[in-house]
Amino acid sequence: MSNPASFWTQANALLRKNLTYQKRDVKTNVRLVLFPVILVVLLYALQTAVDIVQSASLQDEKKTKAAACKGCVCVHDIGRHAKCPDSEKVCGPRFLGPEDANTCPVPYPPEWPPLLQLEVGDGLFSNDAARNVTMLFTGTDQFFGESLFGTMFPTELSINESDIMASLASVVLGTEFGLDLTVFVDPALSINSRILYRLQQDQCKVNSSFSFNFNEGDSKMIPDVKVNCTQAFTLWRKSFSDIWDELQLEDRDDDKIGYYKLHKNPISGAFDFLNSNKNIFNVSFLIYKHDNRDKINMNRTPRSVNMISNAFLKFLLGNGTKMLFDFIGEMPKPASSDTTMIDITSLLGGLFYTWVILQLFPVILISLVYEKQHKIRMMMKMHGLGDGPYWLISYAYFLAISMAYMLCFVLMGSFFGFHFFRENNYGIQFVFYFIYVNLQIASAFLVAALFSNVKPATVTAYIVVFGTGLVAAFLFPDLLKNDLFPKKWIIVIEFYPGFALFRGLNEFAEYVSVGNSSGTLGMRWQDLNDSTNGMKQILIIMSIEWIVFLFVAYYLDQVSSSASGRSPFFFLKGFQKKTPLSSQNDNMPMQGSRALAQMDKPDVIQEREKVEELLLEPAGNHRIVCNELRKVYQGRDGNPDKVAVRGLFLAVPQGECFGMLGPNGAGKTSFISMMIGLTKPTSGTAFVQGMDIRTDMNGLYTSMGVCPQHNLLWERLTGREHLLFYGRLKNLKGSALTQAVEESLKSLNLFNGGVADKQAGKYSGGMKRRLSVAISLIGNPNVVYMDEPSTGLDPASRKRLWDVIKTAKKDRAIILTTHSMEEAEALCDRLGIFVDGSLQCIGNSKELKARYGGTYVLTMTTPWEHEKEVENMVRLLCPNANKIYHISGTQKFELPKGEVRIADVFGAVDFAKRNFTVSAWGLTDTTMEDVFIKVARGDPHSQNLS
């Protein structure tokens, strides 16, 4: 046995094996990496089709609108009757009505007087007479508040018809009509019934109404706007909650009539001065809107701000101070159609790209769970592969695949001209995708620790993929835009990796759609400092989760998925007391008479005494010492516990092959599973080369060989590649590795005919079995466990396998389980028969035959009517003979060797042949099969003829 392989030697072995395996599986890897390319091509085709349809529709719309534009002029000719192409028509500096703004570009938006929002619709104001309105006030300083709202509304009316806009700047006008999405055409001035309301705190006089119009050249732009007087009542309330209650009361239809009868005037708005005083100006205001009325798309807030600000200036500087509000205007309407081209790549980016990137998660998870389910990783671990090299190489492989996947995704998106990729800074994209794929790999390792079967893991993974995308797409954007939703909860939601991914992709899409603060499309590094940008936040969250998930995944792997017997507090090992090499009884009583009878068998008692002596004074030549090893499987669904191994004592020295025999379900495989680290002992322990299997299993793996009951092989690797991999794990290098591999292949007849370089998936069952044996012996391990190694072999291959095992056992201890008595006698120095979890006997084959044999077995077949005569003949020949078999005229009898001679048996059979028909007969010595059947049956006393 060579020295244990170092960390980098193990990593090199696994890397070489993975590269070889992936080279054989190159088509699958190429399809995986090209998956985003296919999706990008499909998305590009969809974008092209949408662009073609939109372009055609846009051209038709431009022609239709240009032809319908009644108040349009040519760009280069202000005259209305100029002849020019429809594509060059725009609205003039003034136009006749709203149809002009809806059909033409507006380079010179009109100027409208600022209006105060009053009650909207539902008949509270009539077209002929005005109703008075109420405005509510509150704050911490009542005197200050009353001083302000006492000067909010002017009392004098002075209209200069030659300059209407300047005259209306000092008048507070109100309207019952709400704004639309635009103010290019104000509904309060453009509808048929053009009535406004002038608010004043004094009572309206009889002739307090007036009319005006806007003129443009020779035509009237807005003719005959009538202004009625409305008195505004200002009422003080103790707190804002009182105002809120009044507004809620007014909002109820059943109380509305009664409320108006009580207050007579509808509430138009409310102001809360909060902590304002002459040094602090802090105001909140509320505009009333009834639920049953049409939705107000834009609030008329500028005049309210002007009113209260103007009042504050008068309070500070005197009534002569005024802050005039001349007009309301909107930015020029672009000289293009309102219809914008749809960018499918940005529109679908959040959901579509989330799905594309998350597709890697099931691939990684399935690969990890597959190795666990088929015990491939455990097989590697039992031959010396440590957890560190496994995690390093596996993680590096998944990272390489993920980065190739993402690189292909971004490059193809950029190649096809998607703004989502081209406009956003590639450095930010690289950092974001790099951190996320690492987080995704760590998440897969974490989730893999919770699954032991591929099917539920696959279903769960794809539910996560599609569920995450759908939930994020339909929920997250609304939460981000909702100012009432707490931002801290946004951060909490982003701790789920899928939502963090969606948020990042959504940020990229937003910056492509609306640009950054400097007007540049796409995200730049400086944009990460913007308060509205969430990219910096999610990069920090994902980085933290990446590290945390890796540590948690490794911890769970060691505790729940590892078979090395680690406790949940294994990281505190340095602070724990070492377990003495002594019996660890759990004081569980032996159950059943068989367990008690075991203590009466001298050979079993002698084996226990040897174990106790070795624990006190360890001998260097004993490789395996089992000290009251016990395994109990907990019962489920109301069933009792199943005791698989009952307090086993066993000592196996170097150079011995110990054969373990027993019927199916006796506990042989459970015993082997404990010894190789697949399961943990319920109580007791075993020491292999002085190391405890409960705490030092990782150290034992480097000097152990295992041939499991079922072949654990990679279908795409050849026999030579299997042995090269496991040989490197046993620290074989260079020519020594090559020589050891060739000798193993030749010894088990796997070298000639190209068999060594044929993929294991094309091997027959016998060839796979021989390869498993070769793997268990590669690197000269000190201890080897073989679970039914010759299963499925033809006689010639079995004989060759036996020769290999006989040669191998000279320098090591071997524990072998088998159902072949011939194999047990040929290979094993000692045998133990295991029944119902207990060792019933132990010794070499001659000792067991002598102990449980000591008889001849007489077999005779006659017609059924002569069966009684055969029994009488055997009774006369040997009174203590036992009948052990009887069926349809064939009977078997055990004859004690000390009570009968072979010559007498032959004479008795010859005499019987002369009296009746004897179809067949035979006399044999006791075989191991007879011993096994007798011990397994559990009743050494068969039917006695006497």
From TrEMBL:
The chain crosses the membrane at residues 33-53, 351-370, 390-418, 430-451, 457-480, 538-556. It is a multi-pass membrane protein. CDD domains: ABC_subfamily_A. GO terms for molecular function: ABC-type transporter activity; ATP binding; ATP hydrolysis activity; lipid transporter activity. InterPro entries: AAA+_ATPase, ABC2_TM, ABC_transporter-like_ATP-bd, ABC_transporter-like_CS, ABCA, P-loop_NTPase. Pfam families: ABC2_membrane_3, ABC_tran, ABCA12_C. SMART domains: AAA. Belongs to the ABC transporter superfamily. ABCA family. CPR flippase (TC 3.A.1.211) subfamily. Keywords: ATP-binding, Membrane, Nucleotide-binding, Transmembrane, Transmembrane helix. It is found in: Membrane. This is ABC transporter domain-containing protein. Residues 624-861 form the ABC transporter domain. The lineage of its organism: Eukaryota, Viridiplantae, Streptophyta, Embryophyta, Tracheophyta. It comes from the Eukaryota. Its main location: membrane. PANTHER family: ABC TRANSPORTER A FAMILY MEMBER 3-RELATED, ATP-BINDING CASSETTE TRANSPORTER SUBFAMILY A ABCA. GO terms for cellular component: membrane.
